Amino acid sequence: MSAQLKTVIDRFCAYNSSLNSRHLKSALLTVAWNADDWTFEALEAHYRTLVRYINFEDMGMVLGYGCGSPSMTSRSGYPEQAYRLGRQL
Question: What residue ranges in 5-73 does DSSP mark as E strands?
Answer without folding.
Answer: 25-31, 57-64
